[in-house]
Design goal:
With 198 residues, the protein is mainly alpha-helical. It has eight helices and two strands. The protein has a single domain, classed as Hypothetical protein af1432 (Orthogonal Bundle). Helix 1 packs antiparallel against helix 8, helix 2 crosses helix 7 and helix 2 packs across helix 8.
């Protein structure tokens, strides 16, 4: 028997959970439109949380391994000659930032859903526009993204023990540390150009 003052709402049309308008709620309090994202909807704290608390490889790993940890591995694999280019390094850190909102769909499934991939690209473009990062950087980052996934595959499925597993909180803290390092580098490396911190 249902108690009085129950939080259950019988008229689901009146509950914001069932208002399917393309938006999702974010930890910052912002709303992100999955269909028509804009830079104003994006917050670095939402990105850090989403990537840190979502698993890579669909969660089919020996221990939890976050998208944020993957992103940091890509940054670590970038050659030394790129380390003096803070915008490029920021792009490496944020190359999967859209997955904080869309999730990390498994590649075989994504290949069957081209419309989803189009939405993802919209999100990725909005992220890069937020920090004035050229999308062309993605082709430079791609080889190190692939190398990271090869290392992860060996760790997860070949028991190579190359990588350690970080908690979501640890991943989030390390992700934000790198973000501020690159962000501050972008400010000092750019003349008369302001970048939004969040």
């Amino acid at each position: 028997m249902k108690k009085e003052n129950s939080p259950i709402i019988e008229d689901t049309a009146a509950h914001p959970l069932y208002d399917y308008d393309g938006h999702i709620n974010c930890a910052s309090g912002k709303k992100f439109n999955l269909v028509n994202p804009t830079p104003e909807m994006i917050d670095i704290h939402d990105i850090a949380r989403g990537l840190s608390f979502n698993s890579h490889f669909g969660g089919q790993t020996p221990e939890f391994f976050s998208i944020a940890q993957h992103s940091l591995l890509v940054v670590d694999l970038m050659p030394d000659r790129f380390h003096s280019k803070p915008k490029l390094m920021m792009a490496a850190l944020l190359h999967d930032a859209h997955e904080a909102y869309y999730g990390d769909m498994l590649k075989p499934l994504k290949m069957l859903l081209p419309d989803f991939e189009k939405l993802e690209k919209k999100g990725q473009a909005a992220v890069f526009k937020k920090w004035d990062l050229p999308l062309e950087y993605l082709s430079t980052i791609k080889p190190y993204d692939k190398k990271a996934q090869e290392i992860e595959y060996a760790t997860f499925y070949k028991k190579s023990n190359i990588l350690q597993y970080w908690s979501p909180r640890d991943s989030m803290g390390l992700f934000m540390n790198r973000y501020w390092h690159f962000y501050n580098g972008m400010k000092t490396d750019t003349i008369d150009n302001e970048f939004p911190p969040f």
